[in-house]
């Protein structure tokens, strides 16, 4: 089950002034099934998980011990327990983010961040999925979406079915009118600065078989 935190959507919706009925509903099993078919037709492997605990268990299973692992900032990953799992060296993976945090030199830390998008395994959430199969994410800086098109060896996306919308246009509107507004509130509370829609990626097709896996979770997760 999703682990609700102070930055989960349910706690930010009133302040963000967003419409969860339009942008955060749970689609029917038939819509989910058709969406999975369209995603897989675009060269992306889809794993259906009943809840966040199962999604985390699958991550543990498919990422080998000692693997180089990086993740983008993601409320979804927090809610499934991923960040708690990788803290303190418990995972057995080479967690790149630990090296970034440990570097005190600003220039070296920035260089590590740039290189981190090319990790062997990059774990990320997403902001929207169109029923036509496109998966979309936006960042302020690009530190997450930079891994998506090519850089990461393996890209693993963990996304709740609440992010499924009818079309690509709806996916972009979900980001503008829902995800961004929630993230903007979160950023101001967490960092004291506003967010922005700075860099966007539309994952429309993957040529390299096995590179991208979507773990689609039957819960409402993240923004």
Number of beta strands = 10
SSE ordering: HHHEHEHHEHHEEEEEHEE
What's the alpha carbon Rg, rounded to whole Å? 16 Å
Uncertain parts:
none
Please give the CATH architecture.
Answer: 3-Layer(aba) Sandwich
| Number of H- or I-type helical stretches | 9
Return the CATH topology: Rossmann fold
Mean pLDDT: 97
Give the CATH class: Alpha Beta
β-strand percent reads 15-25%
- Which structural category do the helix and sheet elements fall into? alpha/beta
Shape call: globular
For the termini, the CA-CA separation is: 16 Å
As a percent range, the share of helical residues equals 25-40%
Write out the CATH superfamily name: NagB/RpiA/CoA transferase-like
Q: Topology, pairings included?
A:
Layout: H1 9-16, H2 20-23, H3 29-40, E1 45-49, H4 52-62, E2 68-71, H5 75-79, H6 82-86, E3 94-95, H7 96-102, H8 106-116, E4 121-124, E5 128-130, E6 135-139, E7 154-160, E8 164-165, H9 168-191, E9 199-203, E10 212-217
Parallel strand pairs: 1-10, 2-3, 2-4, 4-7, 5-8, 7-10
Antiparallel strand pairs: 5-6, 6-9
Architecture overview:
The structure is a single chain. β5 and β6 (135-139) form a beta hairpin. It contains nine helices and ten strands. The chain has one domain: 3-Layer(aba) Sandwich (Rossmann fold). It has helices spanning 9-16, 20-23, 29-40, 52-62, 75-79, 82-86, 96-102, 106-116, 168-191, and strands at residues 45-49, 68-71, 94-95, 121-124, 128-130, 135-139, 154-160, 164-165, 199-203, 212-217. The longest helix is centred in the C-terminal third of the chain and has 24 residues, at 168-191. The strands form two sheets. The chain has a six-stranded parallel β-sheet, with helices on both faces. A four-stranded mixed β-sheet has the order 8-5-6-9, sandwiched between helices. α1 (9-16) packs across α9 and α7 runs antiparallel to α8. The protein has 223 residues and is an alpha/beta fold.
């Amino acid at each position: 089950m999703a682990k609700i935190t102070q930055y989960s959507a349910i706690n930010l919706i009133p302040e963000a002034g967003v419409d969860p009925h339009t942008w955060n509903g749970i689609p029917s099993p038939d819509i989910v099934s058709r969406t999975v078919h369209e995603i897989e037709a675009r060269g992306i492997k889809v794993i259906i998980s009943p809840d966040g605990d199962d999604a985390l268990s699958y991550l543990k299973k498919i990422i080998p011990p000692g693997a180089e692992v990086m993740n983008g900032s993601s409320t979804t990953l927090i809610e499934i327990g991923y960040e708690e799992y990788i803290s303190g060296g418990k995972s057995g993976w080479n967690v790149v983010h630990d090296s970034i945090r440990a570097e005190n030199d600003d220039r070296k830390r920035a260089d590590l961040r740039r290189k981190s998008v090319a990790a062997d395994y990059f774990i990320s959430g997403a902001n929207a999925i169109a029923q036509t199969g496109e998966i979309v994410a936006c960042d302020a800086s690009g530190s997450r979406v930079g891994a998506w098109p090519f850089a990461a060896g393996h890209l693993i996306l963990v996304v709740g079915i609440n992010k499924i919308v009818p079309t690509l246009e709806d996916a972009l509107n979900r980001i503008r009118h829902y995800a961004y507004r929630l993230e903007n509130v979160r950023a101001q509370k967490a960092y004291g600065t506003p967010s922005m829609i700075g860099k966007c990626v539309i994952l429309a097709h993957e040529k390299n078989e096995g590179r991208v896996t979507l773990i689609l979770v039957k819960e409402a997760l993240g923004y």
